[in-house]
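user: can you give me the structure for this one chain? tokens are fine.
assistant: on it. calling the predictor now.
[tool input]
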Amino acid sequence: MCAKPSVIEQSAVPLAAALRPGALGEVIGQEQVLAPGGALHEMIAVRHLSSLIFWGPPGCGKTTIAWLLADACGYRFEAISAVFSGVADLRKVFERARENKNLGERTLLFVDEIHRFNRAQQDAFLPYVEDGTITLIGATTENPSFELNGALLSRCRVVVLSRLSENDLAQLLTRAENLTGKILPITDEARAWLLRQADGDGRYLLNMAEMLLNQKTAAPLDVEQLQKMLQKRAPLYDKAQEGHYNLISALHKSVRGSDVNAALYWLARMLAGGEDPEFIARRVVRMAYEDIGMADPNAALQAIAAWQTFERLGSPEGELALAQAVIYLATAPKSVSAYKAFGAAKHAAADTGSLTPPPYAMNAPTKLMKNLGYSDGYIYDPDTPEGFSGLNYFPPAMKRQKFYAPIERGFEREVKKRLDYWDKLRAPAQK
């Protein structure tokens, strides 16, 4: 089993490695899985591990916890990375694990970035997990539902690890200072900025701290000086993976929920993460029709105008147009009546097949069509006193339906008044 580096050895290793906890009780964060009642607590108590998938962001402690679990439960620890390993490397690990099993020893195989293995490589784990040759702990930053084989997932328990809080990160910094006997040469404001920039990633924070602890400065660095030294960290956001879908969902639901400030925040997060602004613009147009609709038809015009403005100006100037559209949509009255009405109409169209329109609803461009009664009985609505004839335009063989039910909100309030008035005019003709 692995041994933690001695104090003497720690001076020769990176700070993040030197600070690696020697026991699970020293782990900072992840109380939701390690504390009593957590997903891992009972396994530790009985010293028996199930195969697990650790899903969490970078620097949250996946590797450390796996190593400590092996130590606490008496397993041999093997570790490989899916980035640098192939089937040949797996065979060697499986062979060592089989030898350990014959000697009465259990093997915990930790696979970092397990989602990097293709489907066939993932299948290679199945027989060894099933017969107990290995206990697998796979680590991934990606959603296992999308990236791992269903067969492998069914044999493992997914444990979700969280990004470290700023309080957790502050504890890490204190540990680093205690270990080295040095204080970070930065102001309190710069320290707070550093914690925010770490974005929940303990490894990143300790790497930055190590750089700072080796700096010789006459006075503590302020925020501006620290920014120049470290540069600004790109936010964690993969526009091709789950982050892409999570953030656009948060933006859409914030707009739908009329939370304008949250909507602006998620818009800014997506743009800062490098999301394609035209993708955002398309989604904003969809919001206008799907969630606002007839409550404020101008929302669609605002959304399309913002999209066109961005196409003409590009970034960063055109981003303001997207922000304005998001503000307009988030503060607009909401209605899904058009969305529901069209859905109901599509169901009715599918159910009724090829019913013929009433004769007066059809054109009669030829003599034959006129002789067959096409266009007979048609009334030109603008010529009537009320501008409304009351004709029923549904197929004669179909009972009249009501798909659209406007709400008493926004522009639809006026639409509802018109429909109620026309229904009143239509009523005598339907008797």
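assistant: here you go. Strands lie at 52-55, 76-81, 107-112, 135-140, 157-160. The first strand starts at residue 52 and ends at 55.
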